[in-house]
Write a structure and sequence with these properties.
alpha/beta, Rossmann fold, Transcription Regulator spoIIAA, 6-stranded parallel sheet, 5-stranded mixed barrel, globular, binds S-adenosyl-L-homocysteine, binds iron/sulfur cluster, binds FE3-S4 cluster, cytoplasm, TRAM_dom, iron, tRNA-2-methylthio-N(6)-dimethylallyladenosine(37) synthase activity
């Protein structure tokens, strides 16, 4: 293989969940620290990192079409690195199927990108899908400038092994980053301009650690500590598992003002038979009881979830139970997916795989119900006054876009700047956003 000049410009494309967004930002910082610059908009980069997602079939197939699209007219390509969960799951296969790919790097190994780029430039293809928990964070450069709302990875991996899911295989076992490392990164992010931190992890509420006094703490202890930073205005966390929704965390929702009234708690299905086959270890009833307790602690909490339709064996009666659960909860927003068989997961070989057209039809009905629920939640917010964190300029002149405490997108006109916390009256609700009227600039 021929040698290539060392890359001068890069582009990182991230797919999938927030964890990948965070990893993509960290890879960009790492490349920046090597003197490689982001490629200007519209120009080809010397190095392209595809930070991939393996959660559903379509997501994984996309990688190969993206690789194809990077090919130039003369048949050559930029230096391509495949990172993320497809890299972890199918590293060798990618190398075999896509000769244009020179580097394959898993989600726990991307701190090694600089060495791998040197290898690839010298004409040697490089693969690293090792999973040393932790090592990567210690090897990454300090955080640089960030927007008003930043992600902070506190936990990685999953030990739950839901029967449909690849995450335990692509991200490895559950690990918690140490308290002190998280607190240090949070301080860095706040200094760099973050007003809101979203603590992220595949099972973020399974996070545990030891605080500065050596006391064992859970996510609620971490949240309480971070809330003491006077320059940090808002804290969120995602994604949670119902089994790790501790009393302490529920109580924190009622007691920590900076902890925003929003909870993303995936349920997946409303039928206990299906939940059991999914190995979810909660029932529809135990899930609803958790939500009752959260609502008791924080009555205005906005609820969100994930759903899968057409899991093997799902009957029309099972699906009807999903619709009943949706009606019972009154979600503010949700994600819903058709079941996608993933190689190597137990559900992929289960009896009773559901026909695609049945899945399509159920997904449509579910999404109609979820959209109606979201619209109703937004409609009920009209007349509320709340703080909005301004994240960017809106589409029209003088318009701003930000987030309400309930994670709704709110646009408004007037004097403001990115990073401001402003007081807004919500005046009109759409399905995906609200329009607001600026009241007065609050102290940020
Ligand atoms: N750790 C989180 C989220 C993991 S992936 C949790 O447990 O909730 C995000 C979502 O993708 C899941 O909640 C699930 O709804 C969906 N998902 C995962 N595997 C899937 C599959 N094989 N087919 C369809 N959807 C899937
Ligand atoms: Fe996947 Fe289940 Fe783990 Fe979530 S809890 S990441 S759905 S195995
Ligand atoms: Fe996708 Fe991996 Fe996240 S499979 S959803 S990028 S953990």
């Amino acid at each position: 293989m021929a040698t290539t000049p060392a890359p001068k410009t890069y582009r990182v494309k991230s797919f999938g969940c927030q964890m990948n967004v965070y990893d993509g930002e960290r890879m960009a910082e790492l490349l920046g620290a090597q003197g490689i610059a982001p490629a200007p908009e519209g120009e080809e980069a010397d190095l392209v990192v595809l930070n991939t997602c393996h959660i559903r079939e379509k997501a994984a197939e996309k990688v190969y079409s993206d690789i194809g699209r990077l090919k130039r007219e003369d048949g050559s390509s930029p230096l391509i690195a495949v990172a993320g969960c497809v890299a972890q799951a199918e590293g060798e296969e990618i190398m075999a199927r896509a000769p244009a790919v020179k580097m394959v790097v898993g989600p726990q190994a991307y701190h090694r990108l600089p060495e791998m780029i040197a290898e690839a430039s010298a004409g040697r293809r490089a693969v690293d899908t090792d999973m040393p928990a932790q090592a990567k964070f210690d090897a990454l450069p300090a955080r640089r400038k960030v927007g008003p709302s930043a992600f902070l990875t506190v936990q990685e991996g999953c030990d739950k092994f839901c029967t449909y899911c690849v995450v335990p295989y692509t991200r490895g076992a559950e690990i918690s980053r140490p308290f002190s490392a998280i607190v240090a990164e949070a301080e860095r992010l706040v200094e760099a301009g973050a007003k809101e931190l979203t603590l992220i992890g595949q099972n973020v509420n399974a996070w545990t650690g030891e605080d500065g006094q050596g006391r064992a703490v859970g996510l609620d202890g971490l949240v309480r500590h971070l809330a003491e930073n006077p320059d940090l205005a808002r804290i969120r966390y995602t994604t949670s598992h119902p089994n790790d929704m501790t009393e302490g965390l529920i109580a924190a929702h009622g007691e920590v003002a900076k902890l925003m009234p929003f909870l993303h708690l995936p349920v997946q299905a409303g039928s206990n038979r299906i939940l059991k086959a999914m190995n979810r270890s909660h029932t529809a009833q135990s899930y609803l009881e958790i939500l009752d307790r959260v609502r008791a602690a924080r009555p205005d909490i906005a609820l969100s979830g994930d759903f899968i339709v057409g899991f093997p064996g799902e009957t029309e009666e099972d699906f009807a139970e999903t619709l009943s659960l949706v009606a019972a909860v009154g979600y503010a927003q949700c994600f819903s997916f058709k079941y996608s068989p993933r190689p190597g997961t137990p559900a992929a070989t289960m009896d009773g795989q559901v026909a695609p057209e049945v899945m399509d039809e159920r997904l449509q009905r579910l999404q109609a119900a979820l959209n109606a629920s979201q619209q109703a939640f937004n409609q009920a917010s009209v007349g509320r006054r709340c703080q909005v964190l301004v994240e960017r300029k809106g589409r029209h002149d003088g318009q701003w876009l930000g987030k309400s405490p309930w994670l709704q997108s709110v646009h408004f006109a007037g004097e403001a700047a990115i990073g401001d916390l402003v007081e807004v009256d919500m005046v009109e609700a759409g399905p995906n956003s609200l329009s607001g009227r600026l009241v007065a600039t609050a102290t940020a």
